[in-house]
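hiii, so i know i said id send this last week but things got crazy w the move. better late than never?? heres the sequnce for the chain we talked about at the cafe, plus the structure i predicted for it. fair warning i was half asleep when i ran it
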Amino acid sequence: MTLTPAVLDWMLDSDPSVRWQVERDLTDAPPEVWAATRARVTTEGFGAALLSRQDADGQWAGGAHFPGGFFGTPEAETPGQPWVATSWSLKDLREWGVDAAALEGTVEKLAANCHWEYDDLPFWGGEVDVCINAYTLAAGAWLGVDMSELARWFVDHRLADGGWNCEAEEGRSTRSSFHSTLNALRGLLDYERLTGDASVRDARHGGEEYLLRRRLLYRESTGEQVGGFVSHFTYPHRHQYSALNALDHFRAAALRDGTPPDPRLADAIEVVRAARQPDGTWLQGEPLPGRVWFAVDAPEGEPSRWLTLFGTRVLDWWDAAA
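okay and structure toks below
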């Protein structure tokens, strides 16, 4: 563990959604300790606050991926998008560690009341966007929905180069995207972990190989870095790819699969290491634009507990193996 005692105390003096992961991943606290902290996410802090925003019909902000009545408003013409609707809220609650039991009745309410903005499709069936379907796959598995059909969708919709692209279904691209592929991988890994269904593992491994061939940073055709987004670290990261987000996935996947870090991650590791401040923290990057329910991390340019959690556990994992 690379944190000083002062920084570790600062990390532990945080919302339960952060603290339980710090306890588990950075202090090696016994399961009964971090599990007790995780149980508090449902009743305190960010988790409790977001649960309180749920509508009586099971949705958040009256919509699936966008707030109800969003399109055609001035807000729809501004950069970014609101991050307050149902898919984003479920993603946050799941990733923060909220107990699925706290959402009793939500599955049935969303089945009855929530439809995607695309073709009015039913919520739990997903739609055609890879990232949206990845969030839905993981959310359904978390809440106990049979998501096997949507899981097969990912197997069937992998592109020839091994990954996924949200624009492929509209015929706008036949090449995979770093962003879409990482979101698909995270959804598939969570689905596998939550359900034990290994039928998607080969597809996940194939998508991981797509990123590994590119060493998480580069175009395979030219060897050039794909874009500044790979070193843009911010939380919440929403759909955004970065070297840090990708490495956090590869750490989780390796722990799931019982495999060591792949050597091809080395360049991305150095991007993350270079962003670490002398005190061991990572600074918040420019937030993604769009309306939020409330702030869950530091302002831009200040030390971020979330990024410090992700960065520290990734480097600890890599350095321990080395």
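btw The longest strand covers residues 282-283. thought thatd interest u
miss u guys!!
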